[in-house]
């Protein structure tokens, strides 16, 4: 598995992922949600983007996207829940 850190720069995402994210309830330009980190994960069985977001007074979230922009899952970001090669997505 490889992990590529894209920082907080939404312009580094494929247009499909960026469009899906920015049209969601977490859009950082129209809500108080902020991008904390973006990573690209490449595994033999799956490639996906992880956008970690935060907002004051809210629990942090992890948003998983397929490269085509499909949201795979939206989960609470918990302590010590790193993405490993065998983490189910």
Say how many strands there are.
5
Name the poorly predicted regions.
none
From the N-terminal CA to the C-terminal CA, the straight-line distance is 13 Å
**Main sheet attributes: strand count, strand direction, barrel closure:** 5 strands, antiparallel
Give the strand line-up of the largest sheet: 1-2-3-4-5
Question: Order of helices and strands, N to C?
Answer: EHEEEE
Rg over C-alpha atoms, rounded to the nearest angstrom: 12 Å
How does CATH name the architecture?
A: Roll
Percent of residues in helices? under 10%
Count of folded domains: 1
Count of discrete alpha- or pi-helical segments spanning 4 or more residues: 1
Structural class estimated from helices and strands: mainly beta
Q: What is the highest CATH level, the class?
A: Alpha Beta
Strand content: 35-45%
* Shape descriptor: globular
CATH topology: Nuclear Transport Factor 2, Chain: A
Mean pLDDT across residues:
95
Would you summarize the structure shown here?
With 89 residues, the chain is mainly beta. The chain has one helix at 15-22; strands at 2-7, 34-42, 47-54, 61-65, 71-76.
